[in-house]
Amino acid sequence: MPLSLFRRAATFICLFYLGCLPAGLSAKTLEIPGAGTPTSLVQVLADAFNAKYPPELITVPPSIGAVNGIARVTKGEVDITRVAQRLPADKMKGLTHIAIAREAIVFAGGAGVTATNLTRTQLLAIFSGKITNWKDLGGKPGPIRVFYRNPSAAVLHQLIERFPEFGTITYAKDGRVATRDFETLFMLERFDWAIGFTTLGNAQRAKNLRIFSFDGVAPTPENIASGKYPLYTEAGLIHRTGELRGLAKQFVDYVQSQEGKRIITAHGALAVRER
To answer: What is the largest CA-CA distance in the chain?
Structure first.
């Protein structure tokens, strides 16, 4: 092999394996595991980042739960993880939380549901089994199928924090529990008369779901910002305390840029910055 070709080949191999390729050609990837609730929001941000800085660099795997995601960060297996709520101070030793958005928690129904608004009182009656047919809510007749979340779910914790009465009910006897957000969405897509709760972004990415207003207020970023719509999660990223570097820093900077904020708003969430 001619010396010049050999040098070029050797240089490329060195750059490739050391992760020193020019911007847009890095062989490194950034995996962002964690909670299921902010999955769709982080995914749209990752998609936009990958499109701007090809080849695809950011991956957002299915939910493993916030606890497992944080454990992977703590062990140094990943640089950042996604979460749907703030951790208590005693759980944040050696960790830093970056708030990125407030995303509406919504009650959503299956394709057969025609009701468009539900009040606090109606929701309590539905989930406790006191109202069992959509006709009693002014909608097309159909038996209500309730799907709720397991007690450890972050979205349930956030919902109860902002809708305390919801934490006092006993769920309908024929209600069914979903352990993950994607299970809630699967059930809502499968059963036309179902009802459950998730984030706005997750509900919008599902098929043919009815997203309800809450006490007559739509779940928009403007209504979250004004306090008119009180139900939301606090989507964020957690990393080990210290300066972020490489792709992790580049992604966080992108999320908090004006372009990132526009993407968050288009997703139906309220962009925030706290770092």
So the answer is: 83
CB 273 within 8 A of CB 50: no
Quick one: three-class SS letters along the chain?
A: CCHHHHHHHHHHHHHHHHCCCCCCCCCCCEECCECCCCHHHHHHHHHHHHHHCCCCCEECCCCCCHHHHHHHHHCCCCCEEEECCCCCHHHCCCEEEEEEEEEEEEEEECCCCCCCEECHHHHHHHHCCCCCEHHHHCCCCCECEEEEECCCCHHHHHHHHHCHHHHHCCCCCCCEEECCHHHHHHHHHHCCCEEEEEEHHHHHHCCCCEECEECCECCCHHHHHHCCCCCEEEEEEEEECCCCCHHHHHHHHHHCCHHHHHHHHHCCCEEEEEC
Q: Would you say the pTM of this structure is higher than 0.90?
A: no
CA distances from 249 to 149, 171, 245 (A): 34, 43, 5
Q: How many CB atoms lie within 10 A of CB 105?
A: 26
The contacts of residue 226 (CB under 8 Å, 6+ apart) are none
Q: Per residue in 168-202, pLDDT tens?
A: 999 999 999 998 888 999 999 999 999 999 999 99
- Residue 108 clears pLDDT 80, i.e. is over it: yes
Q: For 126, how many CA atoms within 13 A lie in the half-sphere containing its CB?
A: 27
Whose structure tokens read 């939301």? 232
